[in-house]
């Protein structure tokens, strides 16, 4: 039951980020609801398709569909009264990333897949919706930025697998793993948590030797 409600909160959080990500573009209510729903349902849909699940989760339980739609409509009307939309966006995205990753990892484990597949699907589920959202909103995907994004999802997925091995069926394993991801994301947002410079790919400045020579006239 805890996983079910965490999944619902994740749906709502990502739907809200989908609406906020549209910025000040002149999008109508229907367009924003579609964007919010694609953002919140996209990652789980990709996961179920990859795993060849008989019925996609939101088709089996349409409550996910209604929560995504209702959250998008709510965000459409509420966001105009919010001054610091960027802060709300980052917080909602952090919670959505954490909830989706943890719920997906644990659900895949329950389906009988290996820990490796569960962690992989957890990370994909967590980041895929945000990638779809950012691309449709013409934004640079957060996962391609310098600060920690996919890494907290990976660590959280590994943590939930470890907790389930050490404390099987503990009711709060999912909450502990979710907290870890959220804390890491908030540190990345507020404290500039980056990889060390030697782990970053940096584009070299072009030197004179690297520049193409002008053709002689």
From TrEMBL:
Report whether Transmembrane shows up as a keyword of the record. yes
Please verify whether the record's keywords include Membrane: yes
The way this protein sits in the membrane is described as: Multi-pass membrane protein
The organism's superkingdom is given as Bacteria
Q: What Pfam families does the entry give? A: Gly_transporter (PF03458)
Q: Which residues cross the membrane?
A: 6-22, 29-51, 63-81, 88-105, 111-136, 148-167, 173-194
Record's GO cellular component terms = plasma membrane
| Keywords, comma-separated and alphabetical | Cell membrane, Membrane, Transmembrane, Transmembrane helix
Task: Give compartment(s).
Answer: Cell membrane
Matches recorded under InterPro entries: Gly_transporter (IPR005115)
Q: Which residues form the Glycine transporter domain?
A: 4-78, 91-163
The UniProt entry's sequence similarity note says: Belongs to the UPF0126 family.
Protein name, please?
Trimeric intracellular cation channel family protein
Native source organism of the sequence? Maribrevibacterium harenarium
